[in-house]
Amino acid sequence: MTADTGDGATTPAKRPPRSRRRTWLIVLVVALVLLAGLLRWASRPQQVASLVLSQASRALGLRITAKGVSEYTLRGLPKLVLRDVTAQRDGDATPVFQADRVLLSLPWSTLKSRGRDITVHRIELDRPRLDIGALQRWLATRPPSEKRPTPTLTDGFVVTDGRVTGVGWAVERLALTVQTLAPGQRVRAALRGRIIAGATRVPFDLAATLMRPEMPAGLGVAGNLTVVQPDWRLPLDLVLRGVPDFGDGLALDAMVLGAQARYVSRETSLPFAMGIAGRASYASGLHIAPLGLALRRGGPIPDITGGGRLDWGDSLALAFDGRMERWPEAWPALPAPLGRPNGPLPTTLAYTGPANFSGDAALHVESGATLFDGRFRLPRVLAWLDAPANAVPLPPLDGRVSTPRLEIPGATLEGVEVEIVDDRE
């Protein structure tokens, strides 16, 4: 090909150098290969799962693995399904968390942020298992809460058939639903399941509200639970509030619990009101100290106010020092002056034994100069309350009563000491 110069002469036309064309062709081919490789990589769930687990492990300080077959969907919002998931801290023999199935729906921006910005659309957990002891050991290694970013959840967090394990107890059949989670916003959750501790079963159905995900924040819980023993049950319609504290283990500060309760057995139904206040914490067991306790409107159950502490791990320990507001009218009438106290009766209760109170409890009651020191077992006292009226006039207990004066029909006795022995075993 030639070009006319205008004076009749011709010159060859300029062409792009072949080397330049080959360069652009190579760049285009490489780009297409890289794009195809990227698309192929993104379409392989195991590759995406490895990236997600790697980022999550780095952000949480845990070794997170998924041994089952993973699934990844690019249609709509990206979704990743992981199976047989385990999260474990290096050096700890017990996993913090395990689950049969984990569904995550989250944007790529979360992955790119390397844990600095955590936005999740939806999380689903099937048969998750959480170990409280391992969780506490992991939390002890985490930075202060103000240094951790608050995640954002836009489309729900759902737990199905979960299990939480502690020392001597477990929560099973746990169903949990959280609608949304966002910095500075209220978090609402619904919880159902049951607690198992030895022969005790405690089914519950509760609604919880956390004022904001950032700590400290107020927590409110309302709903129903029932303490079930082989011979009796105690339904509670409760309201609980407090301030969670995860800075040093698991704790609930400024805890206040109010409940309308009912003791129900084969023959008896006794309604009463109950209030508990104090600081609850968990470290190899439940501890409430200081503990405030009040019982009201219980009929045969006395009106009591006082404080102390409660420790529940392998066994139960309760120390209570307070007062009985009055001698219950449903109890057997006592001779004067025992039956006519001038005011509340100082009362001390101490118990160490099985969690169902089947062991011996020590009881001390004062009425002026009159003193009672004795022992009893709660299941036998409850059986006495359950017996037909007046079948046995005195409750099943052992003890000693001392009083400077005792009035009985036709006589007044001074310097009296009476020993009570229960032989109904």
UniProtKB/TrEMBL annotation:
Keywords of the record: Membrane, Transmembrane, Transmembrane helix
Record carries keyword Transmembrane: yes
Membrane-crossing residue ranges in chain numbering: 24-42
Protein name: AsmA family protein
Source organism of this protein record: Cognatilysobacter xinjiangensis
